[in-house]
């Protein structure tokens, strides 16, 4: 399973507009609340615990004292019969070390947390982080500038002045591994750490299909002409709100040239070398992303395939 995918919750979207039901479940002691402090999820146990760690899902009465009446609260879904919420406690002062949850766990940066919890809990982190981040950045209406308020248990904002509705956005990004015979194409962005190579990627533009975006991005970033494009898998990427669309693309030749604007270097990896790199080896100073990234899974799938 690709990290941040595989959310186990029943999102129960039909309940979001049922204000009485939401309020009742929000106060129910059987419900669970995930505190999020400055977009960091709460994890159980000390910071130096060996993975896997568990999400710090707490009873409402334990965590409510950390948040004011206007705090962002998201209904994430149902775990069996238990309602699960995410609560923004960013206004609290060092809540992991003082107050009602002190000693129960710690807050961890979301990308790091996603690598040390179960796949299911990582997917829940992605949902909570993306939604709270969106709300924090959309307190005012982009149409008229007036304040907006949370509706539908966190899945809509409504402008109090012009009545415009705003919904959480997801930005589609194509990430593709171009291949030619026994080699795959990787690139090193100018902001990457030394030696880090990954699959190339870019945002899908308005009026563009996934296949068109793959061909355009590979031409722009590596000057390589692409024929067949095939879909592989997707990954929610809540940094802040992308959906990574993983594809394979067949290059017509190995003639490539980095764009020199965003990409510092592109190179072909032979299959044998790719297999060494996905095993965690660093060969000739080259390495690939860790398993949290869909780029790793694209490279791994191709490297271990027979064709």
Describe the structure in your own words.
This protein has 307 residues and is α+β, with helices and mostly antiparallel strands. It folds into three domains: 13-136, Nucleoside Triphosphate Pyrophosphohydrolase, CATH 3.90.79; 138-169; 171-303, Nucleoside Triphosphate Pyrophosphohydrolase, CATH 3.90.79.10. It is 23% helix and 29% strand. It contains seven helices and 14 strands. The strands form three sheets. Strands 9, 10, 11, 12, 13 and 14 form a six-stranded mixed beta sheet that branches. Helix 3 (110-116) runs antiparallel to helix 4 (119-137) and helix 6 crosses helix 7 (294-303). The protein starts with 18 loop residues before the first helix and ends with a helix. The relative contact order is 0.13. The mean pLDDT is 96.
* CATH-defined superfamily of the largest domain: Nucleoside Triphosphate Pyrophosphohydrolase
Rounded to an integer in angstroms, the radius of gyration calculated over CA atoms is 22 Å
Would you give the CATH topology of the largest domain? Answer: Nucleoside Triphosphate Pyrophosphohydrolase
Distance between the termini: 22 Å
Mean pLDDT: 96
Number of H- or I-type helical stretches: 7
* Count of domains: 3
Order of H and E elements: HEEHEEEHHEEEEEEHEEEHH
Largest sheet: 6 strands, mixed
Share of helical residues = 10-25%
The CATH architecture category of the largest domain equals Alpha-Beta Complex
């Amino acid at each position: 399973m690709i990290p941040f995918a595989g959310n186990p919750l029943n999102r129960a979207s039909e309940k979001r507009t049922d204000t009485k039901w939401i309020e009742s479940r929000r106060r129910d002691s059987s419900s669970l609340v995930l505190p999020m402090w400055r977009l960091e999820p709460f994890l159980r146990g000390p910071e130096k615990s060996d993975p896997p760690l568990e999400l710090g899902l707490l009873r409402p009465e334990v965590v409510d004292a950390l948040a004011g009446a206007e705090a962002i609260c998201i209904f994430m879904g149902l775990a069996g019969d238990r309602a699960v919420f995410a609560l923004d406690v960013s206004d609290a002062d060092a809540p992991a070390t003082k107050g009602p949850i002190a000693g129960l766990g710690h807050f961890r940066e979301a990308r790091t947390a996603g690598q040390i919890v179960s796949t299911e809990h990582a997917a829940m982190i992605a949902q909570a982080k993306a939604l709270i981040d969106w709300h924090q950045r959309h307190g005012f209406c982009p149409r008229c500038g007036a304040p907006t308020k949370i509706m539908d248990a966190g899945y809509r904002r409504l402008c109090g002045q012009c009545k415009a509705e705003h919904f959480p956005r997801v930005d589609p990004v194509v990430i593709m591994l171009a291949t030619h015979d026994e080699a795959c194409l990787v690139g090193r962005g100018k902001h990457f750490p030394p030696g880090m190579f990954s699959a190339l990627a870019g945002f899908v533009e308005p009026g563009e299909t996934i296949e068109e975006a793959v061909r355009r991005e590979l031409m722009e970033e590596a000057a390589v002409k692409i024929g067949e494009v095939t879909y592989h898998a997707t990954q929610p990427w809540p940094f802040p709100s992308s959906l990574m669309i993983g594809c394979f693309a067949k290059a017509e030749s190995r003639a490539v040239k980095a764009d020199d604007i965003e990409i510092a270097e592109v190179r072909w990896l032979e299959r044998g070398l790719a297999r060494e790199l996905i095993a965690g080896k660093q060969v000739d100073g080259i390495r690939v992303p860790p398993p949290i990234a869909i780029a790793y899974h694209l490279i791994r799938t191709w490297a271990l395939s027979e064709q």
